[in-house]
From TrEMBL:
The lineage of its organism: Eukaryota, Metazoa, Chordata, Craniata, Vertebrata. GO terms for biological process: glucose metabolic process; lipid metabolic process; xylulose metabolic process. SUPFAM superfamilies: NAD(P)-binding Rossmann-fold domains. It comes from Oryzias melastigma. Belongs to the short-chain dehydrogenases/reductases (SDR) family. This is Dicarbonyl/L-xylulose reductase.
């Protein structure tokens, strides 16, 4: 399916690496003007080197005030991808208050905040828009050592639905993609061990993890008019994991 986002302005968080970076580049290839937000300047430098039309914004999204300041002049945005997240593995009994707060700050609170900033503009312009949150299969299934991460993604799924409910009347659609494991930096952190990977792979009917581009394709679909009646869904990109 070919997508055209010509004339649209898109903002992608966590665009320095992995799924976010590939999404930013794909949106630019499809004609969108892209604002790429992440916290490592070197990643933004290399992204702009790869695609000169991308506008970089360097900020730690876990910092509410810094995010507010960094995005205040970002201008009109039609398409938002809330992709940035952190995942730290810890047995439940070892989870600390700091780890809990940092994860919720980035994976949930920043999604709420960035969506507020962008959606206020969409509503004021009356031109509608589309938001895609990058959730996970871990929002709906327990994964050992991922207590906090699973909880953030469960919260994100419900946030997606409530924002969809409230912004629908303004023709702003809000959906999520919920991928299985993808071998990005984050994926490698949890699933490089072949025995552990096998335990997950045996639960995926298609018998493999997802490729970055497969997640990007689903994000582009949900951003595009090809899904213009789809609102408030949490779309598995998981080879059937959640069906079992
Ligand atoms: P990566 O770790 O490869 O990339 C995450 C990106 O987000 C990095 O550029 C990172 O920057 C940025 N980021 C993280 N925290 C912040 C922050 N506080 N402020 C600004 N930017 C930040 O992750 P993936 O590409 O794998 O993951 C992307 C999304 O997909 C996440 O929401 C994740 O939960 C989800 N997902 C991933 C899966 C996987 O197996 N990989 C499976 C299911 C869902 P920096 O490197 O500088 O920290």
């Amino acid at each position: 399916m070919d997508f055209s986002f010509a004339g649209k302005r898109a903002l992608v968080t966590g665009a320095g690496k992995g799924i976010g970076r590939a999404t930013a580049l794909a949106l630019a290839r499809c004609g969108a003007k892209v604002v790429a937000v992440t916290r490592t300047q070197a990643d933004l430098d290399s992204l702009v080197q790869e695609c000169a039309s991308i506008t970089p914004v360097c900020v730690d999204l876990g910092d509410w005030a810094a995010t507010e300041a960094a995005l205040q002049d970002v201008g009109a945005i039609d398409l938002l991808v809330n992709n940035a997240a952190c995942a730290r593995l810890q047995p439940f009994l070892e989870v600390t208050a700091d780890q809990f707060d940092q994860s919720f700050d980035v994976n949930v609170k920043a999604v709420l905040h960035v969506s507020q900033i962008v959606a206020r503009g969409m509503k004021a312009r009356g031109s509608g828009g589309a938001i895609v949150n990058v959730s996970s299969q871990a929002s709906k299934r327990a994964v050992r050592d991922y207590a906090v991460y699973c909880a953030t993604k469960g919260a994100l799924d419900m946030l997606t639905k409530v924002i969809a409910l409230e912004l629908g009347p303004h023709q702003i659609r809000v959906n999520s993609v919920n991928p299985t494991v993808v071998m990005t930096d984050m994926g490698r952190l949890g699933w490089s061990n072949p025995d552990k990977a096998k335990s997950m792979l045996t639960r995926i009917p298609l018998g493999r993890f997802a490729e970055v581009e497969e997640v990007v394709d689903s994000i582009l679909f949900l951003l595009s008019d090809r899904s213009k009646m789809t609102n408030g869904v949490t779309l598995p990109v998981d080879g059937g994991f959640l069906a079992c």
